[in-house]
């Protein structure tokens, strides 16, 4: 089964997710810095979510580039990932509109956690359907970054109820961890 339709569909859904997020940004009422301060929480949550959606898109691109074939499991695993990513605009808006209230920050973490689980399942599905010597199979044989992310998301979810800003910092640290695509995949492409 070819992977072109999967890539095109995923790119389209991710573009819509980003569009929905940016449409949630409303201009402040007023033309001074005080007016801008009133929308700062919404803007900060948008920036973090934009970075996250961009990271998922970038790494998703690398995953599919490293893969030679896809099958039905991969299609469903991909839809599972896109489902969780499609909830990012909702939790982004909810968190920003409520000035990072603990429950909203925790729910944001739940969506990131579930997206990370779905991404890991997509990786596993791609490994299973590709030949043993495929770039993706070799590069992702020992995956640690995904497991570390899942653990950090869980920590941030529970921390949100005591220290919201520590959760936000943890979410930011995980984003930094994933900012560069999987280096093992890029290294195998260079060979």
UniProtKB/TrEMBL annotation:
Q: What membrane topology term does the record carry?
A: Multi-pass membrane protein
The UniProt transmembrane annotation reads 6-23, 35-55, 75-96, 103-122, 150-180
Keywords on record: Ion channel, Ion transport, Membrane, Potassium, Potassium channel, Potassium transport, Transmembrane, Transmembrane helix, Transport
Pfam families on file: TMEM175
Reactions accelerated catalytically: K(+)(in) = K(+)(out)
- Compartment(s) where it occurs, according to its Swiss-Prot or TrEMBL record: Membrane
Coiled-coil features, chain-numbered ranges: none
| Family classification | Belongs to the TMEM175 family.
The protein, known as: DUF1211 domain-containing protein
The root-end lineage is: Bacteria, Pseudomonadati, Pseudomonadota, Betaproteobacteria, Burkholderiales
């Amino acid at each position: 089964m070819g992977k072109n339709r999967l890539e095109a569909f995923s790119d389209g859904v991710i573009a819509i997710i980003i569009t929905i997020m940016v449409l949630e940004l409303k201009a402040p009422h007023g033309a001074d810095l005080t007016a801008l301060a009133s929308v700062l929480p919404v803007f900060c949550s948008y920036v973090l979510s934009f970075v996250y959606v961009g990271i998922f898109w970038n790494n998703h691109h690398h995953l599919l580039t490293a893969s030679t074939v896809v099958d039905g499991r991969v299609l469903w695993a991909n839809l599972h990932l896109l489902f969780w990513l499609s909830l990012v605009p909702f939790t982004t808006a909810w968190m920003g509109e409520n000035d990072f209230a603990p429950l909203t920050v925790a729910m944001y973490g739940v969506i990131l956690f579930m997206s990370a689980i779905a991404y890991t399942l997509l990786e596993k599905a791609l490994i299973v359907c590709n030949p043993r010597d495929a770039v993706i199979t070799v590069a992702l044989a020992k995956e640690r970054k995904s497991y570390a992310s899942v653990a950090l998301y869980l920590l941030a979810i529970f921390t949100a109820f005591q220290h919201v800003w520590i959760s936000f910092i943890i979410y930011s640290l995980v984003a930094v961890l994933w900012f560069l695509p999987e280096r093992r995949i890029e290294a195998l492409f260079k060979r």
